[in-house]
């Protein structure tokens, strides 16, 4: 019973967040940020203002689908558990484990082709969203650099941690561009994203090792 109630709450949370994201993108593309209020958005989605700010820090984050951290604690812990012991060299599985973490996160948040089109329309109306995207990328990179340093017991600023994060991030952005170009209006396949991504990782291994 407890597990069922937990799953129900999670499903409702996801549905409410998805509705807010959908409306925020639609209204921003149509009217810009000044054309509506958070209160109007919440009323249309059937949630409270408090619920909105439990999910998102701002209208910008709602449009971009940037939810407050939630849902990948278990993935993060699994990644941390695979690290080396203090004083040892970097674990052999670091690259594979970080790639697996990245792909698992993608499965949680993977947007559809229509999601991407709606977000692009909103960004065209509000170009300042590009600044928020850049901030989000930087914040995520710093989070993952710190995560690798923690797992491998590295000193802050160790270039190996930041290099891995930057390589995976660059490959992810290139993969996403190819992924949506391939699919057009067809329903995306998460497995296809993984295959394209892993091909890039394999090419990098061949070049660098």
From TrEMBL:
<dbReference type="InterPro" id="IPR009057">
    <property type="entry name" value="Homeodomain-like_sf"/>
</dbReference>
<dbReference type="InterPro" id="IPR050109">
    <property type="entry name" value="HTH-type_TetR-like_transc_reg"/>
</dbReference>
<protein>
    <submittedName>
        <fullName>TetR family transcriptional regulator</fullName>
    </submittedName>
</protein>
<keyword id="KW-0805">Transcription regulation</keyword>
<feature type="domain" description="HTH tetR-type">
    <location>
        <begin position="14"/>
        <end position="74"/>
    </location>
</feature>
<feature type="DNA-binding region" description="H-T-H motif">
    <location>
        <begin position="37"/>
        <end position="56"/>
    </location>
</feature>
<keyword id="KW-0238">DNA-binding</keyword>
<dbReference type="InterPro" id="IPR023772">
    <property type="entry name" value="DNA-bd_HTH_TetR-type_CS"/>
</dbReference>
<dbReference type="InterPro" id="IPR001647">
    <property type="entry name" value="HTH_TetR"/>
</dbReference>
<keyword id="KW-0804">Transcription</keyword>
<dbReference type="Pfam" id="PF00440">
    <property type="entry name" value="TetR_N"/>
</dbReference>
């Amino acid at each position: 019973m407890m597990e069922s109630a937990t799953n129900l709450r999670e499903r409702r949370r996801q549905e409410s967040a998805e509705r807010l994201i959908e409306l925020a993108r639609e209204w921003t593309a149509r009217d810009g940020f000044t054309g509506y209020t958070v209160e109007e958005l919440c009323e249309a989605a059937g949630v409270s203002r408090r619920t909105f700010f439990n999910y998102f820090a701002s209208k910008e984050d709602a449009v971009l689908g940037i939810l407050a951290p939630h849902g990948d604690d278990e993935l993060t812990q699994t990644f941390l558990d695979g690290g080396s012991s203090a004083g040892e060299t970097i674990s052999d599985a670091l690259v594979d484990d970080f790639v697996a973490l990245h792909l698992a996160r993608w499965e949680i948040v993977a947007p559809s082709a229509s999601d991407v089109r709606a977000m692009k329309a909103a960004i065209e109306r509000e170009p300042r969203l590009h600044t928020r995207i850049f901030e989000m990328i930087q914040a995520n990179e710093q989070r993952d650099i710190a995560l690798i340093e923690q797992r491998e017991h590295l000193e802050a600023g160790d270039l190996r941690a930041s290099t891995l994060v930057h390589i995976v991030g660059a490959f992810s952005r290139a993969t996403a561009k190819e992924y949506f170009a391939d699919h057009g209006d067809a329903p995306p396949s998460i497995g296809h994203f993984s295959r394209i991504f892993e091909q890039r990782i394999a090419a990098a291994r061949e070049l660098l090792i």
